[in-house]
Amino acid sequence: MGKIIVTIVVIIVSLGAIAKVLSNNKKKSEEKTKIVAQQNASVSVRIDTVSRAVPDLDVVANGNFAPAQELKLASEKSGRVVHVLADEGSYVKQGQTVATIRVDQLSVDLHNAEANYQTARTDLERYENAFKTGGVTQQQLDQARLNVVNAKAKLDQSKINLGDANIRATISGIVNKRHIEPGSVVSPGTALFDIVNVSTLKLNVTVNEAQIPYLGVGKQVKVKASVFPEKTFTGKINFIAPKADEALNFPVEITITNNAANQLKAGMYGTAIFDFPNQSSVIMVPRTAFVGSVNSKLVFVADNGVARLTSVTPGRVIGDKVEVLNGLTEGTLVITSGQINLVDGSRVSILQ
Fold it and tell me: In 3-state terms, what secondary structure has residue 70?
């Protein structure tokens, strides 16, 4: 009975040892299979052939037209409006009288100044005659002459003040709004007319740093208005900001001469078309070729079915393309998708 039990135990132990050996062999076989599979596996990727191309730097920038000159004409004197000589929509020239103000006090001041001037002149004649006979001193004669000068200055000032009652336009343009009516009482600073000169307009836009080297003050620019898509106007760059704004764009001011009909109006939506001709060809790759972002300066190159991590020097970013200054040559196959699954040396298969 004891021999039978021992035999059974031996058999069980043997079977366990055999099972353990088989299990270990299976694990080793699976590991080898995985290694082989990993070595033979490839990552599916898409590629693009590196080539030279002329970058399309022509860009458009949008903004709103603004008048080159705009004035809120205000009264300089107090008084009652007698005549309004310009209406909304009227074209007025610089120096043209657009309204008159009745200023009774100024008229009184003018009459008094004229009277004082005539009195001073009469006194001077009397003193000059008296001086010849010794009736007055040299000092009294000098004072009489000074009185004439002062009286003449006050008379001239009164004439100027009364002349200010004729309100004149200080710029040429179209009356956009009239703030007064005959009989209105005004005081210094009261708004009278809004005058807008649209014979020349300004278009303020922004461009990025890639376009700045190709722009210059005086350069001509094509300009379109959204309401006149079939018409093209010619503008000229008048100003380029020396400093970028918070969005790292540079403000640019363009002046446009309106056509004879003054079709362009202030406030209209406009588009500036910047043309950059005569560009030389450069090596460019899709932006998606970069690992992570352009700032990484790394791309994968497909070399005989193997991905090679390559360092490059990126240049300008133009749309969905990036200029490459160094690190790639024409004809190289650059990987544009699937990089997330790649490491240097990974085998790749190219998707058509």
Answer: strand
